[in-house]
Amino acid sequence: MMIGTVFMDxxxxxxxxxxxxxxxxxxxxxDQAGLETETLKIQRSRNDQAYFLYIFTRFEKCVDExxxxxxxxxxxxxxxxxxxxxxxxxxxxxxxxxxxRKVEILFDKNRNNFKTIQYYHKIRNEIAHGGEWTEQLAIPxxxxxxxxxxxxxxxx
Length: 156
Known about the structure:
Largest sheet: none
Helix content: over 70%
Number of strands: 0
Distance between the termini: 14 Å
Order of helices and strands: HHHHHHH
Strand content: under 5%
Radius of gyration: 20 Å
């Protein structure tokens, strides 16, 4: 399973690019290159959205691996009465539960961590399906939050 540091590494990559774009704007290089300030803001927003998706896809992989691990633990030495519910729920590789159903295995739906994932999943779907997320995405904070969520995954 991926350990949370991948999220912080991605956030650092984002910082480097965002700093470059900010300096590009601040030093007036954008104007010299014929880019309007508004165009640069749009590019920075799109960069934020791209990095958000990059982080979230890594998170999805961590969720998949954690649920795989839990299902494996619950079915490996279990008798049929215990094993059948997990096998029926988890299905075959072609018919796996949707993402938020997997998250329900990892977190209580009434807790803030579940609500955070639900919110991020909403953003992910908006961006991934051709929409534009207009709210500011604070990529370092997103990376920290997801890193923390992964560290809270149960293992059994």
